[in-house]
Fold this protein.
Amino acid sequence: MPSHHLSPFKFIACPLVCIGILLVDPVNIVPERMTCMEIWGGNQAIDKYFEAPGIDIYVHSSPYKDSQTGGGDIYYLTSCASGRISRFLLADVSGHGESASEIALSLRDLLRKNVNKISQQQFVSEMNVEFGELGEESKFATAVVATFFEPKNRLDISVAGHPYPIFYSASKQKWVHLDPTESDQGLENLPLGIHDESNYPGRMMTTGENDMFLLYSDAFIESVNTHHQMLGIKGVLEILNATNQLSPHEVIPFLRSKIGTMADGNLTDDDATMILGHFTSTKVRMKDNLMAPFRLLGDVCDNTQLGQ
């Protein structure tokens, strides 16, 4: 599938089943398979577990004060026509409810345009232009975008004003912070829409089986410990690395429980969202490769839910 292909597709609705937040034992959560040519996500409370070629994906989001109109954290997953390109977006926008949902719609439209492109750079550039055109300083956003290309086990990450992801190396059995790349531009990692010439830092890496990456909103690193000191990324890493090896399905519930019980207000005074990717040995199915050219002429399956 050519990475430059843009298909003339439209949205079709697909059934979406949600499960209660932290009410289900993560071991018993039944995974759903990402459908080829699908976009899934939104800004509402969710706990989900997906399977895709080469990666399992866990998503958790809790809007501020359990808002029924949706939070300011926006999360999306997409899968290309064959399933070999999986893309992940976590954005933190100013505002909640209707204001956030307006931006979420723009992000959804941009993601569907780029669903079959291996490179995410055009998407990130278009995203910045889109937010810049909103023309309101109160409507800025930070975001982290990750793209996994299964044939090469390659993970590409771009960050715009957002906390950098955390990565688990299975060979070293250690969680590390993915530090920004060096840049001489001086304008890197600005919130989206602030400067239309920003070059956002990125990182491309080859992944191994059982490695993991974690995208998260700032509620986790802005929480405080039992001494009321802000955890920061260092504190979150200490929590993860001081724990016996966690299974992928245990990581998010563990962090929510550990951090949430350290002090009142932790993970409740702001939107709290995490996306965990666990790399596996699964491959693109032959029938999906064969069907890809035909899917390019079809429609995108829209599994998004946005607050009103």
The chain has one domain: 32-299.
